[in-house]
């Protein structure tokens, strides 16, 4: 994961052991787990929660190695933290300042991973060249997702963008984006954008 998400990886390390190291020459961190006890604890924690077919195949191989039955995931419901983990790993939270729209999105090769998301959380599924993308951009749906993330908080740096979304809507309603730079609203808008770019609260 990116270095801004180090807190996320260190939580995993604290719970299961292993190591977190900076990859040579890049701003990415890698988590590794080698010892058997930690691996068995991790398998127990995620068994039945994996939905990506590639990850299921990988999980099946390691479960077979330790003679552990693979648990099939149950149907996704609203009260499930899976979406938060999905956003943490593969999602994006970004602003289009020209259109004044917020986007929460995830891209994947497998459409069926998205099939249950619009009925539960809103948003739309789009077809791209070799993949699919689930995007939420309507204000009402974004605000509903914010409430979901209160129940199941993100662990990565994206959580700071989620926490800043209500402030963004407040500032837009006050037309802070149109205010002069030296005004109170103009300074508040500039401060918000700096924190947004840096993934800060």
Could you describe the 3D structure shown?
The structure is a single chain. By secondary structure, the protein is of the alpha+beta class. The protein folds into two domains: 63 residues, no CATH class; 117 residues, Homing endonucleases (Endonuclease I-creI). Helices cover 46% and strands 15% of the residues. Strand 1 and strand 2 form a beta hairpin. The longest helix has 16 residues. It is globular. The relative contact order is 0.10. The mean pLDDT is 94.
Q: What labels would you give this structure?
A:
201 residues, alpha+beta, Endonuclease I-creI, 2 domains, 4-stranded antiparallel sheet, two-stranded antiparallel ribbon, 15% strand
How would you briefly describe this protein structure?
The chain is an alpha+beta fold and 201 residues long. It has eight helices and six strands, in the order αββαααββαββααα. It folds into two domains: 3-65, no CATH class; 82-198, Endonuclease I-creI (Roll).
Q: Any chance you could write out the topology, listing elements then pairs?
A:
Layout: H1 6-16, E1 19-22, E2 29-32, H2 36-46, H3 53-65, H4 82-90, E3 91-96, E4 101-108, H5 117-121, E5 124-127, E6 132-136, H6 139-151, H7 158-173, H8 184-198
Antiparallel strand pairs: 1-2, 3-4, 4-6, 5-6
Helix pairs in contact: 7-8
Domain tally:
2
CATH class designation of the largest domain: Alpha Beta
Q: Kindly report the spatial arrangement of strands forming the biggest sheet.
A: 3-4-6-5
CATH architecture descriptor of the largest domain: Roll
Q: Which homologous superfamily in CATH is the superfamily of the largest domain?
A: Homing endonucleases
Rg is 19 Å
CATH third-level topology of the largest domain: Endonuclease I-creI
Overall SS class: alpha+beta
Task: Provide mean pLDDT, rounded.
Answer: 94
How would a textbook summarize the main sheet? 4 strands, antiparallel
User: Tally of extended strands?
Assistant: 6
